Amino acid sequence: MKIGIIGCGNISRTYFNNAKRFGGLELVACTDIVMEAAEAKAKEYGVKAMKVDELLADESIGMVINLTVPQAHTEVNLKALNAGKHVYCEKPFTLNLAEASKALDLAKRRKLRIGSAPDTFLGAGYQTCRSLIEEGKIGRPIAGTVVMLCRGPEKWHPNAPMFYQKGAGPMFDIGPYYMTALVSLLGPAKSVSGYASKAFEERTGGAGAFAGKKFKVETPTHYSGTVEFGCGALVNVAISFDIHRGAHNPVEIYGTEGSLICPDPNTFGGPVKLYQPWMKDWTECNLTHRYAENSRMLGAADMVAAQKSGRPHRCSGELARHVLELMLAFEEASKTGKKYTMKTSCQIPKPMDASLPEGTLD
Fold first, then answer.
1. What are the CA-CA distances from residue 328 to residues 200, 230, 264 (Å)?
2. What residues contact 242, with CB distance under 8 A and at least 6 apart?
3. Distance CA 71, CA 7 (A)
4. What's the pLDDT tens digit per position in 311-341?
5. Within 10 A of 1 (CB to CB), how many other CB atoms are there?
6. Total number of domains constituting the chain
7. Quick one: what percent of the chain has pLDDT higher than 90?
8. Could you tell me if residue 124 is left (phi over 0), alpha (psi between -120 and 50 degrees) or otherwise beta?
């Protein structure tokens, strides 16, 4: 399948590089609101730079990878679907549930595929964690913790204000990795009790054009709460751009027969550590699957393979919508002071086939 990229910002480089690793797809074109950026990427990677409308009108292009800013995701997703293209979107899928459902409904009517990052849960780290849980190594999952504490990206990122606008912040920028990883291990969420706050009304940039300049913080920057999963597990969550430093594992899952330390879900690899009552201490586990290095594009490649074989793709729009609602639920619970009951659900994606060679997807 021939693929075109819309949005040639920082993340696009990884997609361009990794497209070469997977069979069944061919990256042929790119575009950006700033055509100079598209032309630079086109020259670097040997593809064609097109205007947006030109790319969408090209009947040879079967799928669009949407790497635009979050505020433009829905507009681009809908335009691509209406142009008859399958769509794979960077996270977050959309900014609200209505937009997510609109895109899913349109894809269904047009008999097209739509999916969304993150695809890190398809990597060696979380596929190994899933295998251990499904093998009963920790028994029945009953609880867990998610901790992502940092001071935010404003000191090093050249466009820091975008991380503090509505639709961004730590929950929408980093949260998709953590929430998607949890759903891939534990299944859909049932309810959320949570709080959302921000410690600072302004931040100061430290790099690029915003170095030394103050800008407003428009979104919560600290989230804390508990997610109740349909399987019965209760997971405590802390995600923040307000903390200078912490000393916690990113994700831990506790079961009736043992405990599991999971890797940073913003990565594809390990380490994965297991504890069972007969062990003296945590034991690092061998990774059972492929894709331990940065493999962004894996989800899009899986969608191409799934479309060809007729199976569901793993980074589905339904999964992305459920994760979106899960993230939105923290702020909603904080505003109302009440537990939020989830309205959407999804299927746990099929495990990756560890027997297949790299670059080949079932």
1. 21, 18, 22
2. 151, 152, 198, 199, 200, 221, 222
3. 12
4. 999 999 999 999 999 999 999 999 999 999 9
5. 18
6. 2
7. 93
8. alpha
- Residues 128/285, Cβ–Cβ less than 8 Å: yes
Residues comprising the chain, all counted: 362
Instruction: Examine the pLDDT at 359 and tell me if it is beyond 90.
Output: no
Confidence of residue 270 (pLDDT cuts 50, 70, 90): confident
pLDDT value at position 259? 98
Judgement on whether residues 33 and 125 belong to the same structural domain of the protein: no
Annotate the chain with three-state secondary structure: CEEEEECCCCCHHHHHHHHCCCCCCEEEEEECCCHHHHHHHHHHHCCEECCHHHHHHCCCEEEEEECCCHHHHHHHHHHHHHCCCEEEECCCCCCCHHHHHHHHHHHHHHCCCEEECCCHHHCHHHHHHHHHHHCCCCCCEEEEEEEEECCCCCCCCCCHHHHHCCCCHHHHHCHHHHHHHHHHHHCCEEEEEEEEECCCCEEEECCHHHECCEEECCCCCEEEEEEEECCCCEEEEEEECCCCCCCCCCEEEEECCCEEEECCCCCCCCCCEEECCCCCCCEECCCCCCCCCCCCCHHHHHHHHHHHHCCCCCCEHHHHHHHHHHHHHHHHHHHHCCCEECCCCCCCCCCCCCCCCCCCCC
Beta-ladder partners of 321: none
Residue 93 and residue 299: Cα distance in Å, rounded?
Answer: 13
Query: Is the residue at 349 inside a domain?
Result: no
Judge if 208 and 258 occupy the same domain. Answer: yes
CATH number at residue 80: 3.40.50.720
